From TrEMBL, chain A:
CDD domains: GATase1_IGP_Synthase
The enzyme's E.C. designation: 4.3.2.10, 3.5.1.2
Pathway: Amino-acid biosynthesis; L-histidine biosynthesis; L-histidine from 5-phospho-alpha-D-ribose 1-diphosphate: step 5/9
Database matches in NCBIfam families: IMP_synth_hisH
One GO process term, biological-process aspect: L-histidine biosynthetic process
SUPFAM superfamilies: Class I glutamine amidotransferase-like
Classification via PROSITE patterns: GATASE_TYPE_1
GO molecular function per UniProt: glutaminase activity; imidazoleglycerol-phosphate synthase activity; lyase activity
Catalyses which reaction(s): 5-[(5-phospho-1-deoxy-D-ribulos-1-ylimino)methylamino]-1-(5-phospho-beta-D-ribosyl)imidazole-4-carboxamide + L-glutamine = D-erythro-1-(imidazol-4-yl)glycerol 3-phosphate + 5-amino-1-(5-phospho-beta-D-ribosyl)imidazole-4-carboxamide + L-glutamate + H(+); L-glutamine + H2O = L-glutamate + NH4(+)
Pfam families on file: GATase (PF00117)
Gene Ontology cellular-component terms listed: cytoplasm
UniProtKB keywords: Amino-acid biosynthesis, Cytoplasm, Glutamine amidotransferase, Histidine biosynthesis, Hydrolase, Lyase
Organism, as annotated: Chitinophaga solisilvae
Designated name of the protein: Imidazole glycerol phosphate synthase subunit HisH
TrEMBL record, chain B:
Xref: CDD domains: HisF
Reaction catalyzed: 5-[(5-phospho-1-deoxy-D-ribulos-1-ylimino)methylamino]-1-(5-phospho-beta-D-ribosyl)imidazole-4-carboxamide + L-glutamine = D-erythro-1-(imidazol-4-yl)glycerol 3-phosphate + 5-amino-1-(5-phospho-beta-D-ribosyl)imidazole-4-carboxamide + L-glutamate + H(+)
Originating gene: hisF
Subunit structure: Heterodimer of HisH and HisF.
Primary localization: cytoplasm
Cellular component, GO annotation: cytoplasm
Function recorded in the entry: IGPS catalyzes the conversion of PRFAR and glutamine to IGP, AICAR and glutamate. The HisF subunit catalyzes the cyclization activity that produces IGP and AICAR from PRFAR using the ammonia provided by the HisH subunit.
Compartments where found: Cytoplasm
Protein name per UniProt: Imidazole glycerol phosphate synthase subunit HisF
BP terms from Gene Ontology: L-histidine biosynthetic process
UniProt key word Nucleotide-binding: no
Length: 197, 251
């Protein structure tokens, strides 16, 4: 099995590679179209800023390549937001796999809500093969200032003042807002479930 | 619901874990990778590794250590100690660190915080402040607590957040090593007036101290070292106690 990790200008790719390694899988970090297309599984990770990331993907035509993929694709954090339709982060049009808007957290009262959300939060309403053997209310590690709204593709929900999509799924596209590669055993289980698709 | 975080801190010197009591009398408390993985398995929410090595080789050694930690530890971790340039941050993040913490260098050149936040995002820039209460206020200390400044901890924290720091790691030097509890007043002042998470550090001695810092000071996370290293408090028991006291924690 060949697992490709899409290389672009967004950080923390190494952690994803190490998480795969702990499961006995070698992840190939690449921006080579043939390597990505021929992979059995594709992971689209990312920590960074949406408009910069989208510009980078468009310049290299990786945007069309990603939306045309037929094998299982897993978007993580910014990777998930980029798979949505539009992000409020610098008013960015994204890849549009999920018909979902990405918005910025708003504190109802000044300083009540700390932004970014940093830390462990629970996920509920789990209904995806990604979550097999992952208990309802499992804790995952989140670091983000923007969130994907609830919609038809929502397969897990988290609350941070409002309910939002902790995970999305449509056809061969899977996506999580949290970092499964940093979410201890439950996170590792999600990556394993994805690799077993 | 977002949980309160328990963070063991591992001071690293020449690749080994050490802990200074009141920043002195350093003792060896074991291998950092082994200890880090053990804490992760016990339910620690994050780890902080502070490198106190003072040799020229330290940068390369630290990057190698970070990469070994990232390979074995499946929870987030922060690396700090002598970070003074954007390139240092790049190397450590590329090696697998989730966040980096800056202290003295950021105080001496505050523009570093802006540059780092712009390059890597606020979420991975932690500002560490060592502070001591004297003459009626909390002042910033530099160089591992050896150099006093005339700047108030709150003012520096606020400026750093405005410049892009995503989290504050606040160590009270008055409390550190005493095991008499965290500095609730300054921790609360920062936590309730800044829009970024505050990690309280220094003074943890009992499980009740953690309840106090979360409930009274509204800290987002609490950090401790020696009480964990010497098994005076074990993380599962601490989390059970917090849960029973109504503090939202992860199991």
């Amino acid at each position: 099995m060949k697992t490709a990790i899409i290389k672009y200008n967004a950080g923390n790719i190494r952690s994803v590679q190490f998480a795969l390694e702990r499961l006995g899988v070698t992840g190939i970090v690449t921006d080579n179209p043939e390597e990505i297309i021929s992979a059995d599984k594709v992971i689209f990770p990312g920590v960074g800023e949406a408009s910069t990331a989208m510009r980078y993907l468009r310049e290299r035509k990786l945007d069309q390549l990603i939306t045309g993929l037929k094998q299982p694709v897993l978007g993580i954090c910014l990777g998930m937001q980029l798979l949505c339709k539009h992000s409020e982060e610098n008013d960015t049009d994204c890849l549009g796999i999920f018909d979902t808007a990405v918005k910025r957290f708003q504190s109802p009262v000044e300083n009540l809500l700390k932004i970014p959300q940093i830390g462990w939060n629970n996920i509920t309403g789990l209904h995806s093969v990604m979550f097999e053997h992952v208990p309802e209310n499992a804790y995952m590690y989140f670091v983000h200032s923007y969130y994907a709204s609830l919609g038809a593709d929502t397969v897990a929900i988290t609350n941070y003042v409002i309910n939002y999509s902790a995970a999305l799924q449509k056809d061969n596209f899977y996506a999580v807002q949290f970092h499964p590669e940093k979410s201890a055993d439950s996170g590792s289980r999600i990556i394993e479930n994805f690799l077993n698709l | 619901m977002l949980t309160k975080r328990i963070i063991p801190c591992l001071d690293i010197k020449d690749g080994r874990t050490v802990k200074g009591v009141n920043f002195e009398n350093i003792r060896d408390a074991g291998d950092p990778i082994e200890l880090g993985a053990l804490y992760a398995a016990q339910g620690a929410d994050e780890l902080v590794f502070l490198d106190i090595t003072a040799t020229n080789e330290r940068r390369k050694t630290l990057a190698e250590l970070v990469s070994r930690i990232a390979r074995h530890v499946n929870i987030p971790f922060t690396v700090g100690g002598g970070i003074a340039a954007v390139e240092d941050v790049n190397v450590l993040l590329q090696s697998g660190a989730d966040k980096i913490s800056v202290n003295t260098a950021a105080f001496n050149s505050p523009g570093l915080i802006d540059a780092m936040a712009r390059e890597f995002g606020s979420q991975c820039i932690v500002l560490a402040i060592d502070t001591r209460f004297e003459d009626g206020d909390w002042y910033v200390y530099l160089n591992g607590g050896r150099v006093k400044t005339a700047t108030r901890a709150f003012d520096w924290a606020k400026e750093a957040v405005d410049r892009g720091a995503g989290e504050i790691l606040l160590t009270s030097m008055n409390n550190d090593g005493t095991k008499k509890g965290f500095a609730l007043d300054i921790t609360g002042q920062l936590s309730q007036n800044l829009h970024v998470p505050v990690i309280a550090s220094g003074g943890a001695g009992t499980v009740e101290h953690f309840v106090d810092v979360f409930e009274k000071a509204q800290a987002d996370a609490a950090l401790a070292a020696s009480i964990f290293h010497y098994k005076e408090i074990e993380i599962p028991a601490l989390k059970t106690f917090l849960y029973e006291k109504g503090v939202n924690v992860r199991f």
